[in-house]
Amino acid sequence: MHPALAVIFLTLFSGGGFGLMALVATVNDLQIDGGLNPLQTTVAVLLSLVFVTIGMLSSTAHLANPRNAWRAFTRWRTSWLAREGVFAVLFYPFAAAYLVWIYFTGAPSAPAGLVMASLAGVIGLITIFCQGMIYATLRTIRQWNTPLVPVNFYAMGLASGATVLALVRIALGGKAGFLAGTAMALIVAVAVLKGIYYFWIGKPSGPTIHTATGFNRFSVRLLDQGHTFGTFLTEEFGHRLPRERALGMKVVMYLLAVMIPLAALAIVVTDASSVAAAVAAVSVVAGIGVERWLFFVEAQHVVNLYHGRQRC
Amino acid sequence: MRLGLVIDLDTCVGCHACAVACKEWNTSGTTAPLTDYSPYGAEPSGVWFNRIRHYEIGEYPYNKTVNFPMSCMHCENAECVTVCPTGASYKRAEDGIVLVDQSKCMGCNYCSWACPYGARELDRVSGTMKKCTLCIDRIYDMEIPEEERQPACVLTCPAHARMFGDFDDPESAVGRAVRERGGYQLMPELNYDPSNHYLPPRVHAPIPTDGLRKKAAAKVKEWVNRVVER
């Protein structure tokens, strides 16, 4: 698949934003480490809104005809993309109401405020699920057609959200030991789940050039694809990554998304250093960006079977 | 009604006339135009509803060239319609034709991701998704003679390798052809249940090419070719 930056930014930033909001709600609901103070909560929710907005705006940049973007909310009965749009928009009033509540009352952990925060968090989590299902429902791309995709989106949204929340807390003078520990646990979950995913998609399965053409008992070889230069199909679906390069990118991804943040968060736990927390947050977002790029480039659409591939 | 095409892979000669006729008709049809990008430039490209690939099947000497035209299959389980967030893509209840409402499409490409057959192509100029309409502006046109109320690709095919009809009617030309010739669907394991069917090439005895005794005339011709300098 063509790794369009607009679509990569959509799930990268909005996933982190929704994860951040869900964790803000959880921390204040359960009063973990005494809960967040009004300033910390305000900054975290604002960051969440900024992240979600970056994601939403970049997704409209991907549209070839954005004039009709408002129609994307209409087919929520069948389309996961429409559901994602509906829930993402529904997220705003609750998150904004929580901000307004804190502004006027200064009590982020009062019950009425927590109701708004929790609703925003739950809606954010539902949106992450919808984003995963956009990809997981496509039977045409076996690397996406697996429940591991929404699971991975959850792990990565929550891991980046937790790292950013630890940064916010520590930079604004709070105890972040527990939050940093949570972020470390979530990052370990990302490493494990993504490992399972890479193992899973490494196994050949699905349609082949034989089932694509119907010649199941013969060897089949493309002689000519019928056009001289690129088409929409080759540009959108033709991307491939050589095995060695893919491996190299996965090493970079694990380094940025797992190793560096884990080391930095370990420093945060022992020394409460806000510089280390910032390094962790930037690194984890960059690493998940690399992961999202790989997610697209490694996805092999079955239409490639009609352009000469033996299997996808 | 379930309208669709039958492609006879036995008789298709791979001339691309169906693709050209399709482009000509539809570039001024209901989802017009079929935009070309730098048609006279170094790397011409553009929107087509119908594309023909060429395959070699089997190993020499039991091999064969198969020409493979593909357009929208007008699937019964049209995932392209299911995933469309705007409602621009729809499947007509009365005849099963899958269409894109150009006034509603926002150009998100999601339907093309859901299509296994590469039937949908984004028009970069209009910003909307375009695809085969089964010549909906021909097949219901009461102004033209009845025998011409067929898709442009079917009418133009010089090898009569394309048939158009109703798959719900077992006695229609397409229903009969699929039944009698073992017509099949592409990638049935994905369960899209495409309407278009493909007729496999007929099995012929291979024509012997080795160990033949040459006729006297051929020997003389060979000798003359060797002796006479050009």
CATH class of chain A: Mainly Alpha
Helix percent of chain B reads: 10-25%
Largest beta-sheet characterization of chain B: 3 strands, mixed
**Pattern of helices and strands of chain A:** HHHHHHHEHHH
Low-confidence stretches of chain B: none
Question: What fraction strand of chain A?
Answer: under 5%
Number of domains of chain A: 1
Taken in chain order, the helices and strands of chain B follow as EHEEEEHEEHEEHHEHEH
Our estimate of the beta-strand percent of chain B is: 15-25%
| Largest inter-chain contact set | A-B, 56 and 59 residues
Total individual domains of chain B: 1
CATH H-tier superfamily of chain A: Formate dehydrogenase/DMSO reductase domain
Write down the overall mean pLDDT of chain A: 95
Using only CA atoms, what is the Rg of chain A? Answer: 21 Å
Number of strands of chain A: 1
Class inferred from helices and paired strands of chain A: mainly alpha
> What's the overall average pLDDT of chain B, rounded?
94
Distance between the termini of chain A: 12 Å
* Structural class designation of chain B: alpha+beta
Explain what the structure shows.
The complex is a heterodimer of chains A (312) and B (230). By secondary structure, chain A is mostly helical. Chain A is 69% helix and 2% strand. Chain A has 10 helices and 1 strand; from the N terminus they run αααααααβααα. The N and C termini of chain A lie close together (12 Å). Chain B is built from 7 helices and 11 strands. Chain B has a 3-stranded mixed sheet. In chain B, strands 2-3 form a two-stranded antiparallel sheet. In chain B, β6 and β7 form a beta hairpin. Chains A and B meet through α3, α7, β1 and α8 of A and β4, β5, α2 and α3 of B.
Q: How do you describe this structure in short?
A:
The complex is a heterodimer of chains A (312) and B (230). By secondary structure, chain A is mainly α. Chain B is an alpha+beta fold and 230 residues long.
